[in-house]
Design a protein that fits this description.
The chain contains ten helices and twelve strands. The strands form two sheets. Strands 2-1-3-5-6-4 form a six-stranded mixed sheet, sandwiched between helices. The protein has a six-stranded parallel sheet with strand order 9-8-7-10-11-12, with helices on both faces. The model has no long low-confidence stretch (mean pLDDT 96). With 269 residues, it is an alpha/beta fold. 38% of the residues lie in helices and 23% in strands. The structure holds NADPH dihydro-nicotinamide-adenine-dinucleotide phosphate (NDP). The site of NADPH dihydro-nicotinamide-adenine-dinucleotide phosphate has 28 residues, from helix 6 and helix 9.
Length: 269
């Protein structure tokens, strides 16, 4: 029996996940198929239940359902608990396991693919939404010397930092006007790029050999252009997308796919 997986979102037609998982399955010889499924905005839970009844083995979950997926899971990983959101569901005989692979995907892309050592580095994380929340714990686990969360609504960044701050004196948060030092790694986890906007960064935000990372992928962004103009190296979020998918694949199938040819294939496309 071929195992069936799906990604649920709304909208979902743009999703590259079916392509990525088909490539992983081909590469590792797994007998599985993976589809994109549009869930109605008010019908996520029913859509997942119907999929389980049809024999679905697991699912990815994207905007706007990650918090609902968190609530649907009967058992959750520690990183999902800290993120408050779930992007991967595994259907088990006794319930639904929920995980969040976004942060691990970002760290794998930064450290493994881009060769950026995070230990001892000063990291600026822009944004306080779902994407930012999901990556804080995995970033802290890399032992940076400082992690500052900046957000347009400063109170949201401060509340977010507080929820992670037990014993973490390296973690701080506030508005963009509070940025006074430079950073080695600057990560854009805001939705500003979607609207063609640039968060209000100071000109001296990048250290001498800084990396600017935009979680958005598929097009150049005002943030990446700003970073290039200020001498920083740049990377988009395509590697993160493929790495978070690989982490989900590993959870479901117990095999780690080779992500490098899949990232190359998507870039070429
Ligand atoms: P949310 O809507 O949850 O969060 C939006 C955040 O962006 C908030 O902090 C908001 O600030 C901030 N923001 C929005 N517009 C602006 C602006 N014009 N200037 C400054 N800040 C702004 O989005 P997500 O967290 O879900 O996603 C953020 C980005 O990450 C998206 O581009 C998404 O595509 C990408 N992403 C990429 C992934 C990958 O695998 N590569 C995985 C997950 C997400 P405020 O609180 O003040 O409103």
């Amino acid at each position: 029996m071929t195992d069936v997986y799906a990604v649920f979102g709304n909208p979902i037609a743009h999703s590259k996940s079916p392509l990525i998982h088909a490539a992983f399955a081909g590469q590792t010889g797994q007998d599985m198929v993976y589809f994109a499924r549009l869930a109605p905005l008010e019908g996520f839970r029913d859509a997942v239940r119907a999929f389980i009844a049809e024999g679905g083995r697991g699912a990815n979950v994207t905007v706007p359902f990650k918090e609902q997926a968190f609530a649907l899971a009967t058992r959750r990983s520690g990183r999902a608990e800290m993120a408050g959101a779930v992007n991967t569901l595994k259907f088990e005989p006794n319930g639904i396991f929920g995980d969040n692979t976004d942060g691990a995907g970002l760290v794998r892309d930064l450290v493994g693919n881009l060769g950026v050592e995070l230990a001892g580095k000063r990291i600026l994380l822009m944004g306080a939404g779902g994407a930012a929340r999901g990556v804080i714990l995995p970033l802290l686990e890399q032992a940076p010397s400082r992690l500052f969360i900046a957000n347009r609504s400063a109170d949201k960044a401060i509340a977010l930092a507080r929820s992670f701050s037990a014993g973490q004196d390296i973690l701080a948060a506030g508005g963009y006007e509070q940025l006074s030092a430079s950073f080695d790694v600057v990560i854009n986890a805001t939705a500003a790029s979607l609207a063609g906007d640039l968060p209000p960064l100071p000109d001296d935000v990048f250290s001498g050999d800084a990396l600017a990372y935009d979680m958005m992928y598929g097009r150049d962004t005002p943030f990446l252009a700003f970073a290039r103009d200020h001498g920083a190296e740049t990377a988009d979020g395509l590697g993160m997308l493929v790495e978070q998918a690989a982490e989900s694949f590993y959870l479901w199938r117990g095999i780690r796919p080779n992500t490098e040819p899949v990232i190359r294939m998507l870039r070429a496309a």
